[in-house]
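Everyone, describe these structure tokens:
***
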Amino acid sequence: MAGWPERESGDLHALFDAVADSVPEARLRLRAWCDAIHVGDPIRGDLLLAVTEAAANVVRHAYPDGHAGSFAIDARRVAGDVVVTVRDEGVGTGRAAPSRGGGLGLDIIGRLFPDSSLCDADPGTRVTIRTPGS
């Protein structure tokens, strides 16, 4: 179900099925977008890692008991910053199953981007990352 349309403004909007194969696909789409707008390393690498972790969390936690679902990645420039949002319409943070194993995704995101936010989106969850885009 991966959707690949870029908005006319150069923003990225991509929709993916919440399955494991979509995580690397989402990373590739964000990498292409970063390349197109000239987001350099190390910011690009950190964004790719953070979005990979957020997408993996959707796949693991947002749609329990085998329910199908999707997630979206939106990326845009705002006043020179890069803002990336990963959102789903799953059960939200309060009803997600506890992590078995790893459980480091949100910690990694928070360490890379201290101003990132995680919130319930009613329905679902939204992770927003904002960073200078140079």
